[in-house]
Batch of 2 targets.
Target 1
Amino acid sequence: MGSRYPHSSGERSELADRVVRVNRVAKVVKGGRKFSFSALIVVGDMNGRVGAGIGKAREVTEAIRKGMEVAKRNMITVPMVGTTIPHEVRLKLGAARIMLKPAAPGTGVISGGAMRAVIETAGIKDILTKSHGTNNPINTVRATLAALQQLRTAQQVAELRGKEVEQIVGRRLANAYRRQEGVVTNGAEASTPVETK
């Protein structure tokens, strides 16, 4: 399936990046074969932002560099509730079918392969995942990013519907979210940790 290891970038050290797969490709021309490399890279700030990109070049290091540039341009923001995601999401993209499920604190990242690279670089600490269908890393990464883009917090849903959070999740859950939000705000960063289940 390819190598999966942290790769340090010199210019922006605050971004963590993973090489998910390096593939050698050949183009048949009149004089023989031309070999080049394609690299699938996942980049994230470990705090809710993640992106992926593919780079192609004659050298592996150049392919990785190009893939990192593409990934940095295509980063998305993932809404989070504490260390997990707000709600369960199931998605079918091409031949890839994936499921992401929130987990209790301390569960860890229950995931494998290309999905794990996306989830870890996004900064999600507790999650349950399952991938059906294709095991192609490119399609799996694309499907995972598309699923993460579909996530919405209860606050965002309330704003879209023009209602209060209490009307959507109930008073007890809304108070729990506010307490959790207060804890996070008093800490390092302010976020809107809201859960729908």
Target 2
Amino acid sequence: MHTRRFLAEGHLIDSGILTRMLNTIVDAGADYRIVSFAMGKVRTDSSRLDLEVQCAEEARLASLTGLLVNQGCFEKDPGEALLRPAPKDSCVPADFYATTNRRTQVHRGGAWRDVADMRMDGVIIERDGALSCRLIREVKAGDPVVCSSRGVRIFPLFQDGDSEEFGFMASDVSSERSVDVAVARVAEEMARQKRDGGRVVVVAGPVVIHTGGGPALAALVRGGFVAGLLAGNALAVHDIESALFGTSLGIALDTGKPVFEGHRNHIRAINTVFAHGSIAAAVTAGAVTSGVMYECVRAGVPYVLAGSLRDDGPLPDTEMDMLAAQRAYGKLVKGASMVIMLSSMLHSIATGNMIPAWTKTLCVDINPAVVTKLSDRGSGQTIGIVTDVGLFLRSLAEKLQR
């Protein structure tokens, strides 16, 4: 029998992690022995587990180690992590370690060392003595790459005091809860973020404008509650269309009825911006005098517009190089203390891939599948509110302006 010893620390019982760890071992056809278990006496105390795992096959034990590491176990005697040189640019050894979005350490030089810039679906490299998470395309030939799960430690995401106050969506995604209560909690959290110097980044889709939520989002920007905006070309186009013509996709926002030749309005909006060279120039010239983009320019709030195959125009501010757009998204969202995702599955999932698990993440969408997909892709910290995004934003702005 091949044997390895593992340790685990934290809220192992109330989080359900202990049960998942033991089930993982049994499901893998291995056996275990609990060497010791010290359970916390009160809710704030951590528990500590010392676990011996036995398996008849070394290869199966190595695979099981990876599963246990991802759940928060770490080897009692990890030894030095295995690093192999990248064979060429944007190429790593076949047994590379694939990252999660949780806090991670690597055992190097006889000590556990933190990995910087954590995000999911990356690799860990060492440069100039520092460990960091990088996308595979950022790896250079010869970079030492962490391989296998040996000498890797992941910290599970446990609920703390702040998250409990923000934890009105601790259960599965559902529309069966008071949206007004949820909005009140979000307003409290955003006010706290502003007071404490946090950075709230908003990811928004064009539905925000279509549902009449544009003025409310603009009010949040104007009030200093938004530190950055991530969106696609469509949000900006329809926001400017609504500012210039009072329509979104040719539909009057005040009546909900189509207007004569309204289908031209979004092209007219694009044309207006091109006439001035950029959104900021159109605002400075007085051509655009309201809306989300107007408030971002006036307040100096940075924004990134990522293009797509379906874009009309697109606006001169829209980044059509997808890799450049990814880099710009990652740069703006880095260090965010809270991310609010508003009815944009594509951009929400893309942003979720870029942020660590300890970033407070809120997703508002009429479709509960959007929040479910975020969780399925690793953004398990996401809190979901299933409602109309326009109604949500108007209620949120009203509460924050009181």
